[in-house]
Amino acid sequence: MSTSRLVALAFVLVFAIVNVVATPLPEPVNIRLGHALAQRDPAPFEPIPAYMKRDGLYLENGKREPADIPEETPTQSPNGQLELYGRAPQNNVIPAEIAVTAPQGVVKPY
């Protein structure tokens, strides 16, 4: 045999051996390996701190508090107080398809 055939055969054998080793173990072997884990008592788990911070966010009935502002509404917080943007709705009457310009902060069609 030539060396290229030997190398190819070696790769095929290594591939087959790796696949045999990687196969799952039969059920009785898994039970014996996990026997020590089944014998011990698990320690009680505490909630993750990120979830503990959310306790006051929802009322008992599962609804949001009435003072909450929806996520879709743009807000600002200039002095630490949360407030809506002061933009009047009548200023935004130009459709999105029309090109606009804003000299001195006033939106006008281009």
From TrEMBL:
Signal peptide positions (record): 1-22
Keyword vocabulary terms for this entry: Signal
Disordered: region residues: 61-84
Protein name: Uncharacterized protein
Origin species: Lactarius akahatsu
